[in-house]
Amino acid sequence: LRRQLVECRYDIDRLAPHFLSIYQSLIPPSEEKAKQKQLLLSLERLVNMQWPKARLHLYGSCANSFGVSNSDIDICLAIDDDGDLSKNDILLKLADILQSDNLQNVQALTHARVPIVKLMDPGTGISCDICINNLLAVVNTKLLRDYAQIDDRLRQLAFIVKHWAKSRHVNETYRGTLSSYAYVIMCIHFLQQRKPAILPCLQQMKATYSITVDEMECAFFDQVEMLHNFGAQNNESIARLLWAFFHYWAYCHDYTNDVISIRTGSIISKRAKDWTRRIGNDRHLICIEDPFETEHDLGRVVDKYSIKILREEFERAANILQFDPNPSVTLFEPY
Ligand code: 3AT
Ligand code: MG
């Protein structure tokens, strides 16, 4: 069976227009972006009345260019610890400030894994989560956004993979499947590995952007406008790439030994990272290295039950793209 599946169907490229139109239907309209910017500015004005030097940054899918319409927005409050206030104090103070404005459902979740203030802006209907000083997320958001500008096929692939993952309920970290962030990293890695490559490895190139966050140096090449032709030697269509992506995760990835790494633009071994044993809750059943926090396995949420579900879903997707007469419908059938 494995051997049969290595060559994809002869007419795979004819499916490209179907997948492109699905991609297009998922892209948020530009008015939505404008509304988000507006909300960000008005929140910043409020925050600055209390903390004049504090800044608000968008991160996550509303800023990394992998967001679909009507997503909630993720905001990071960057504030200098003036020593007196703990993170929780800041969070509670922030909730107070926002509460007194015309915002709804303001809630401080101080005990969450990432503590946040949640709120809803009745003017725009936009919901947002605000966290404190999570600058690493702001930097990894920039890395993803920069990759997206190099070749359109990354955004196309990642939108469709995220749409598939949501439809099939395998984008639920609280139930042991993968985050959207992890799926985008998997797509970047996959496009770095195509022959010829569709994406470069920005962290291995001469750094033009560098910032130190939590004593960690985050550096990469960010003049991506110079890389617009990078993938031009490769003319694979989105349909072919989608098939190859699922085929890789269904039949080719070595789950026992390999870690995917967009930081190095290669596959590295679990042994080299000492990810061969379960330590605490880290089981390393599917290994996806975070580009900056290299000791973090983005697959650490996956357990012995959910790994089975994930792999079955990768196989299902690969087989649908291989054999199904109408794959652009079947692929996303609700679970
Ligand atoms: P959705 O469109 O909301 O599904 P998203 O891109 O907002 O996707 P997530 O909700 O998974 O993605 O995460 C929001 C951001 O938080 C994305 C990334 O900048 C950061 N982030 C998420 N998970 C991790 C992680 N494990 N390590 C570091 N940063 C992370
Ligand atoms: Mg999000």
TrEMBL record:
Domain PAP-associated: 237-296
Family listed: Belongs to the DNA polymerase type-B-like family.
The protein, known as: RNA uridylyltransferase
Span covered, complete protein: 411 to 745 of 761
Residues annotated as domain Poly(A) RNA polymerase mitochondrial-like central palm: 20-149
Biological source species: Dioscorea zingiberensis
Domain of life according to the entry: Eukaryota
Cell location: Cytoplasm
